[in-house]
Amino acid sequence: GSVIGILGGGQLGRMLSVAASRLGYRCHIYDPSPEPPAGQVAEHVTTAPWDDAEALAQFAARVDVITFEFENIPTATLDLLEPLRPIRPGRRALSVSQDRLTEKEFLRGLGLQTAPFAAVNSADELALAVADLGTPAILKTRRMGYDGKGQARIDSAADIQPAWDAMQGAPAILEGFVTFSQEISVIAARGLTGEVAAFDPGENVHEAGILRETRVPARLSGGQRSDAVLLAANILNALDYVGVLGVELFVTKDGLIVNEIAPRVHNSGHWTQNGCSTDQFEQHIRAVAGLPLGDGGRHADVVMENLIGDDLNRVPELLREKDVAVHLYGKPEARAGRKMGHVNRIIRSER
Ligand code: ATP
Ligand code: MG
Ligand code: MG
Fold first, then answer.
1. pLDDT at 333
2. CA-based angle 185:201:343, to the nearest 5?
3. Taking the complete model, does pTM exceed 0.80, yes or no?
4. For ligand 1, what atom is nearest to the CA of residue 146?
């Protein structure tokens, strides 16, 4: 049997390992942190820094293919690994999605719509960009942001200096505020031989910048649904992508606007674990291992709810509920804002 190497050992790496194991593969996790959640289920774990050339070479020697569960893998790490084993998805997907500016330019280049944006490297440039794009607007660090961290909203001139200060000197991007009716995401996959399969778009609800809930089906017209899926396929093909990709979209009266892409399995795709015969984790493993993709068809309506921080206290009660699948990540402490697990509630239609 082959061994799949996974960079990053969080909950996504853990669920990828479970899916890989179901298909008869073994997993080897590489993560700098001492007790990563994925380490509890994978066969091997390497705990070493991202720039440890020797540890990376040993890791590569023990695996057949390398994938990752988060997009911020340092370039130096990729430089060391790339000559040794195939990395799927590849460099291009990572470099495009690691920087919000590069990402938006790439998406525009494909003819897709994004929020209006401007690169910002100083308080003066921010003032000019705000004058240009208007308010409200959102200032974001170009790199490393997640769960709404590294963002500041600007409603008036008085917010400009504090917003710039919040970036702590990091290169930033100003985005015009998009008025949307809903947020949706498409989770789609492309196989080694170029075939594409997409899951039904989900409708996402965020709270304080963190994903709270994903519902399928999303409230969309047939046209909007096919636009969303075609747009995701367009991105996958342009990147010569292998694996699962998440595309976050705003639904507006002027069509779909791409918020961001994630070159990996995605929180808003967790519903597939209980709504599809092939879930996003298995689909990703199939793609990177060079197997045929599974059918992305959906057999149930599902509401996925994240269990964040103290929500963990609700688990005993959730375990008693009918049609609720509980998924826990085995993280040691339930810090505020930390994703501890999720539940998939299967909605049965009344007959
Ligand atoms: P993630 O955890 O999904 O990676 P993130 O930190 O990269 O999040 P974004 O997805 O950029 O952050 O923004 C978080 C949320 O803030 C979005 O889902 C959306 O609700 C809101 N938001 C972000 N940018 C805009 C915008 N330009 N206009 C309107 N709302 C926005
Ligand atoms: Mg993001
Ligand atoms: Mg996002």
1. 85
2. 80
3. yes
4. 6
